Amino acid sequence: MQAFFVLRRVWPAVLLSSFLIAAGACAQGSKEFQPQVGQEGKDVIWVPTPQTLVDKMLEMGKVTEHDYVIDLGSGDGRTVITAAKRGAKALGIEYNPEMVELSRRNAAREGVSNRASFTKADLFESDFSQATVITMFLLPDINLKLRPKILNLKPGTRIVSNSFTMGDWSADDTVNVKDNCISYCTAYLWIVPAKVEGNWQLGDGELSLKQTYQMLSGTLTRAGGTVPVANGKLQGDRISFNIGGLLYTGRVVGNSMDGTISSGGNWKATRSAKP
Ligand SMILES: C[S@@+](CC[C@H](N)C(=O)[O-])C[C@H]1O[C@@H](n2cnc3c(N)ncnc32)[C@H](O)[C@@H]1O
Questions:
Q1: Residue whose CA is closest, atom 19 of ligand 1?
Q2: At what angle do helices 78-85 and 51-60 cross, to 10 degrees?
Q3: Which of 44, 56, 128 to mutate to test the pocket of ligand 1 (most atoms within 8 A of CB)?
Q4: How far is it, in rounded angstroms, from Cα 88 to Cα 130?
């Protein structure tokens, strides 16, 4: 009986102290992870893109609600969240699970969790073939490693990189922001070009094209002789070149391309069966 009274007196104190310990543990658990600029990442450390450059990068990529934006190595999620705020669907691929959780919290706070999602994954093992716009802030050698995969994306896919280039693939556009940006203030844009290298039947002539990324050179051979193809350029599936002082512009769709000539007529070319 005495033991019962002792227990009755001690229980409330035991319960109270257990509650306080549990509450303390919860408060500690809910302490948000604070990322540190320069913290280790799998292949690249974390340095956030200045918001002013994030805005410029998405502007250069012409991101709209019709786009699917993927940020490779998405850090705290700022590019993905900003793309979602522009109405796009956006995905961040990030190796650090704490950064992924932080990004999800940030997206929820900004009210864009329905369009901004994040996955904990290695960008080298991820499929980003469905993206219409890819953003990244990685390193020159990583860009080069990704380049073959990027060049195989759908023509017209826009790639925007903070600060780092793509080796000898020159950018279609470069912008340097001055306002509210101290370091890492340059963005580069590339548009994945259609693949047109080879021989094409153009009217009664044979058009032979040589392609270096988005740049084209070549010749047109007709009964009368061979003339050079000048100023050849691709912008996604849009093609333009000069032959004999006339400007040809048009669109490439698989093994055929067609468009208009500055003289007023139309042109059409189909890929020759022979190499
Ligand atoms: C320079 S930060 C850029 C962050 C963000 N894109 C931005 O512009 O603010 C690079 C990010 O890539 C992540 N990262 C590094 N290697 C990675 C890999 N192999 N796969 C996925 N993420 C990676 C890092 O954890 C870091 O958050």
A1: 122
A2: 50
A3: 44
A4: 13
Residue 24 has a pLDDT of: 39
Of residues 243, 245, 231, the one with CA closest to residue 269? 243
Express each pLDDT in 107-148 by its tens digit.
Answer: 999 999 999 999 999 999 999 999 999 999 999 999 999 999
Residue 160, both tokens: 């925007």
Summarize pLDDT for 203-238 with one digit per residue, the tens: 999 999 999 999 999 999 999 899 999 999 999 999
**Residue 229 C-alpha to ligand 1 middle, in angstroms?**
42
Comparison of pLDDT for 29 and 150, the residue scoring more = 150
- Phi and psi at 40, nearest 5°, equal -60, 145
Residue with CA at minimum distance from ligand 1 atom 18: 122
Residue type, 250: G
